[in-house]
Amino acid sequence: MSQRKITFIQAVREAFQEEMRRDERVFVLGQDVQAGIFGTTSGLVREFGQERVINTPICESATVGAALGAAMTGMRPVVQIMFGDFNYMAMEITANQAGQWHYISDGALRAPMVIETPSGARGGAGYGHSQSLEAAFILPPGLKVAVPSTPYDAKGLLKSAIRDDNPVLFFEHRRLLTQRGPVPEEEYLIPLGQADVKREGRDVTLVAVSATVQKALRAAEELSRRGVEVEVIDPRTLVPLDKETIFRSLQKTYRLVVVEEGRRRGGFGAELSATAMDEWFDYLDAPVQRLGAISAPLPYSPVLEAACIPSEEDIVHAVLRVLGEEE
Amino acid sequence: MSQRKITFIQAVREAFQEEMRRDERVFVLGQDVQAGIFGTTSGLVREFGQERVINTPICESATVGAALGAAMTGMRPVVQIMFGDFNYMAMEITANQAGQWHYISDGALRAPMVIETPSGARGGAGYGHSQSLEAAFILPPGLKVAVPSTPYDAKGLLKSAIRDDNPVLFFEHRRLLTQRGPVPEEEYLIPLGQADVKREGRDVTLVAVSATVQKALRAAEELSRRGVEVEVIDPRTLVPLDKETIFRSLQKTYRLVVVEEGRRRGGFGAELSATAMDEWFDYLDAPVQRLGAISAPLPYSPVLEAACIPSEEDIVHAVLRVLGEEE
Amino acid sequence: MPLENGKLKELYRKMVTVRTLEQRVEQLVTAARIPCSGHFGTGQEAVGVGVSGPLRTDDYLFGTHRGFAEYIGKGMTPAEILTEYYGKATSLSRGRLGQHLLKVDIGVMPLPSSLGSEFGMAVGAALSSKLRGSGQVAVNLFGEGTAGQADFGPALEMASLWSLPLIFACNNNQYVELAHYRNVVATEDIAPRAAGYGVAYEIVDGNDITRVYEATERAVERARNGGGPMLLEFKTYRRGSHYTGDPGGYQPAEEIAAWAKKDPIDRCRERMLADGVWSEAEEQALRQAVQDEIDAAVQFAEESPYPDPATVYEHIYAQGGMSA
Amino acid sequence: MPLENGKLKELYRKMVTVRTLEQRVEQLVTAARIPCSGHFGTGQEAVGVGVSGPLRTDDYLFGTHRGFAEYIGKGMTPAEILTEYYGKATSLSRGRLGQHLLKVDIGVMPLPSSLGSEFGMAVGAALSSKLRGSGQVAVNLFGEGTAGQADFGPALEMASLWSLPLIFACNNNQYVELAHYRNVVATEDIAPRAAGYGVAYEIVDGNDITRVYEATERAVERARNGGGPMLLEFKTYRRGSHYTGDPGGYQPAEEIAAWAKKDPIDRCRERMLADGVWSEAEEQALRQAVQDEIDAAVQFAEESPYPDPATVYEHIYAQGGMSA
Ligand SMILES: Cc1ncc(C[n+]2csc(CCOP(=O)(O)OP(=O)(O)O)c2C)c(N)n1
Ligand SMILES: Cc1ncc(C[n+]2csc(CCOP(=O)(O)OP(=O)(O)O)c2C)c(N)n1
Ligand SMILES: [Mg+2]
Ligand SMILES: [Mg+2]
Fold first, then answer.
1. Pocket perturbation via mutation, ligand 1, pick of C39, C47, C51, C65 by most ligand atoms within 8 A of CB
2. pLDDT exceeding 90 applies to what percent of chain C?
3. Which end of chain C has fewer CB atoms < 10 Å from its terminal CB, N or C?
């Protein structure tokens, strides 16, 4: 196994390259994808040309619509939406159309497309450039939702997403983009719907989404010093959700905490906590703790933004609460 | 108290009339609101003129945008979105803008506007004219969500929504529109955030949303014949949610069922079940049962549609399950 | 190319089929045999039939919610349409689509329930054709009211920018639901909007099947040969109601009467009769054949079973899918 | 009305303020004193300053994400802008808005983070003005790239249909992020798109403050007097980078140089000097005054405290609000 470390951006770019070489139906479209504002698509145009790396006008709805039309007619587009927040501009196409035609056509149509979308709070981008909206795609049917937290996962998940025959939203947290991590030279895929245990532990199961995985790991370190061993699980995709891995952990810990950067009200944590209620009630020694952003717009000032989203410290407290060691 | 019975449509129309007479800043805009496709705005143009009852081009996003612009500059628009599904077309404006500017302007702006939107499955309208999407508005901040189930509630809630200084989504289930119910002649308001106990009972707390209230009441009758007394609570607004009324009931029943016509995955039931987990864990003798549509598009054929959404019978079973009388 | 007689007769037959079928379906909706509320297009049959006429089977058609003209035009049968409208297990979608007619293998593409959501999809289909070098053309037919939708301009922009084989075909039937279109459309004509995006346009008499066909054929051939997109606006008139149950009364009787005189089916028949390429006997035979075909299709749909409710769990996701 | 000298000097001062402030903020962004990545508009100051020049305090301005021209133009101060960019408690929004500048009481309306989401809002503001009979005009300033956004056409349609006091002002600076605009805009000019909706338009030299001001003034007065909407396209050029950190290199050096010769500030000053209404002494004094004002504003912003994190729970809902 290679010990090569590359950035999240490089990992994503490699996934693009490999899949575009492998399958000529794969193409990329979005605003400035030729230059690549966040770097994930930079340079692709040199290898694949302007026909397969297409700069679009500034219109998220029609661009996602075009991706859907292309996907339904034999292509495999990846459309980049520059900020996760802008996915609401194309919500009609994504939620009402892309996720639904395979079903209502009784299988006659498929929509193999990916929406690649940098998102999340990075301090100072302001209310509409900072949200984590992945939970908004749990309610609509027929979509898959990937939330990678490492370069390794990003590459493997994006490759699977591109090969998937369903529309997949692929969220890239902007705080992760420049981080490095080990990514093998050899090709690999990560199936959509397979969680990853990022840290083993026997006392509490902590499910963390996207950039909060890192906060969760740091909180786990801190808790370990206090004698609490937290198992950190990264679901990697919110839909499909790998309930088995979470349940396996819960059968050992009997305590569940879930953390996300998106808003808590109506978020992924609500669905997971409700799932625990539905299916794992007898395995809960304490109520599930769910953490997420407060139900407010994200303010610009970094000190305010930080006060809205869960911190490492909030996670430590939630773990202590689920252990009954704090109110 | 008057015993007058009027339809849901008439009740909504009266709310419009009373509020438009009371406050000249109130106006209505939407597709064919002058004629009034579903009747709720029919005839208003005769009394209030074309300036206050405005037919718009077919563009949901710009229409909601226009309502927001008017709301921020001293008017109190009610915008009609003909089918609830089309709210995704204006999601950017509703979720990213309307709900956020009051906060990020630190109170300098207000968006007193209502989105009135017929929705829900009525058998044979098909995938994109039948969804119940109210749960999609729980995640975004700053919005309120009303889901009246009777003519009485519809009138009182719409009047409050029009007077509210926040954007309010007002969902009208199409199966309810022609139903009649008692509505007093005298003016009244129903505060947003006040649930209504539609039926008292000591054994199980059943929270039902919009048209499922009626299914819940019928299921409760059936269960009563079997000796089970269900308390049916209509939250009337999903945001703000009257947790007190639900908790008061739970303190008596120790068992909670929640039913909605919208999809179960990521739905209101997830949020309510998770809330029960967070706050009422010690009052749950059994896991909360949540019912909602399957995570699929709604098929057209009425037999298929019916198989996707919770029925009276499904509710009966859920109640029996929460009582441990069924698996 | 001028329309030749064999083709003209085929288009005529299709127009008659459309009108007869629409009238029948309207009765079936009123009689609650069919659960949806239909939208029909009496008087505007030449548009959909004429626009789809010059298309190859593999060309893409994004049609409208109103009536069956372009669907019959592109090759769907009355039985295929009726079984969808009835929501029966024998329909192509096994009861899932209803009025959102689709038949992928003859290029009948999604009719989204949200008007205008097809603009982007049509761009994508045309882009796909171009990338694959398949020579397919995409035609997006939409009403003048739908031209007000958000993605209309962006679709023109993309089609122009990438020189796509995409025909924007506006069916201007002068009504948008229960109001005259000038109530919600700022201009008399939609077509010149194309010029703002560098897209060529033409305004065509939508009640003359020959002109509709020929204008479309020119645009399609131009697009197929790399000439890029075009917008065609067909002027016609909706003589019937917006939907079954529409109270009516907002269309002046004289206006309806004036347009009835320009009925596209009558005009086509009279011209064929005058040109001596059509006879009363052929007319009788056609009417009978169409009636028989529709009767048989109604019977088939009536007798078909409803789908099995257990099928709702199938095809939620492609490739095996997931549980709900 | 021709622009009189007092007004011209005021506009000149504002352009100088804009450029000086933008350069300063760019340094502060690079030095990470300011957390956002700014977008600046060196070379295009005449557009924002000129467009906001003829507006009444209560007229509505929906400005752009690029630079400060229309914000300074409408009456915001460097200190108001800087405290927002710093995210300090002394800003009008107490640190919430950042680069989304707003000052409601002088008509500076929302700059949405999603480009183009203001099109509908501007229609609504103009409609509101009309309904209230207040005589206020709304001006929506946007880039040529933003003209591709979905609600642009529908906003033109509504403004035309309802004859709203709304000016669409397109700042065509020839670049959309890191590419020349013709990469993603189908036509040389945006303005003729207005004609498709029955809206009058005019193309104006955006580097000539006098023309920008006068064209806007005509359009605003026409709109105020019930003449309805108009679209103005200002041709200008963005000489700087798209955002702080932009690698650059995609703008030909000769192109930049050619446009530098048409610099709006230089042109204005030279004309005033030639006309004898301006002197080198006045110039020196102005530069010094602007510098002093900005230095003081930076110092004020630097010394201001960050907001109290506990304030994040305030104003989530209007009127008391709700718990999170
Ligand atoms: C996004 C959306 N908004 C509203 C509707 C409801 N609706 C159905 S038909 C129609 C009128 C369409 O007018 P036009 O485009 O002129 O077509 P026509 O009905 O005249 O054929 C409307 C508004 C819809 N289906 N989708
Ligand atoms: C909806 C949306 N899509 C993309 C962006 C990212 N973005 C910021 S500035 C910009 C370019 C805008 O170009 P133009 O309208 O010409 O204005 P300019 O930057 O040249 O002033 C883009 C795409 C955005 N803010 N909003
Ligand atoms: Mg029409
Ligand atoms: Mg530009």
1. C65
2. 95
3. N
Domains and CATH numbers, chain B: 3-184 (3.40.50.970), 196-322 (3.40.50.920)
Q: pLDDT per residue over A170-189, tens digit each? A: 999 999 999 999 999 999 99
CA–CA gap between residue D174 and residue D258 (Å, rounded):
14
Q: What confidence tens digit (pLDDT) does each residue in C190-218 have?
A: 999 999 999 999 999 999 999 999 999 99
SS3 label, residue D163:
coil
Domains contained in chain C, number: 1
- On whether any CB of chain D is under 8 Å from the CB of B163, the answer is no
Containing structural domain, residue C73: 5-304
- Tell me: the pLDDT tens digits for A183-211? 999 999 999 999 999 999 999 999 999 99
Residues from chain D contacting residue A304 (CB–CB below 8 Å): 87, 95-96, 307, 309, 311-312
- Provide the pLDDT for residue D319: 83
Contact B38, B198 (CB under 8 A): no
- Is D124 within the bounds of a domain? yes
What are residue B182's phi and psi, to 5 degrees?
-70, 130
- Give the CATH number of the domain where residue D121 resides: 3.40.50.970
Kindly report the CA angle at B54 between B49 and B59, in degrees rounded to 5? 175
**Burial track A292-325 (b if 16+ CB lie within 10 A, e otherwise):** bbbbbbbbbbbbbbebbbbbbebbbbbbbbbbee
On whether residue D174 sits in a domain, the answer given is yes
Q: Report the distance separating Cα C126 and Cα C60, nearest Å.
A: 8
Query: How far apart, in whole angstroms, are the C-alpha atoms of residue B271 and residue B264?
Result: 10
Whether the CB-CB separation of B204 and B196 falls below 8 Å is answered with no
- Note whether D114 contacts A302, CB cutoff 8 Å: no
Interface test with A, best of C315, C319, C323 (most A CBs within 10 A): C315
ipTM: 0.98
| Cβ-defined contact of D87 to A294 (cutoff 8 Å) | no
Report d(CA A301, CA A124) in Å as an integer. 6
CA-closest candidate to residue B245, choices B262, B232, B257:
B232
- Residue D323 pLDDT more than 60? no
DSSP string covering A221-282: HHHHHTT--EEEEE-SEEES--HHHHHHHHHHH--EEEEEEEESTTSHHHHHHHHHHHHHGG
Question: Dihedrals φ, ψ of D98, to 5°?
Answer: 60, -130
Chain B interface, best mutation among A60, A63, A139, by max B CB count within 10 A:
A139
Interface contact C131-A68, CB threshold 8 A: no
Residue D310 domain flag: no
**Mode of pairing for the β-strands spanning B53-55 and B26-30:** parallel
Strand order in the sheet with A289-293: A196-199, A230-234, A204-208, A256-263, A289-293
pLDDT digits (tens, 9 = 90+) for C48-80: 999 999 999 999 999 999 999 999 999 999 999
Going by C-alpha positions, the residue among C279, C255, C296, C233 that lies closest to residue C12 is: C279
- Nearest CB neighbour to B274, from listed A133, A239, A269: A269
Cβ-based neighbours of A225, under 8 Å, separated by 6 or more: none
Residue C283 lies in a domain: yes
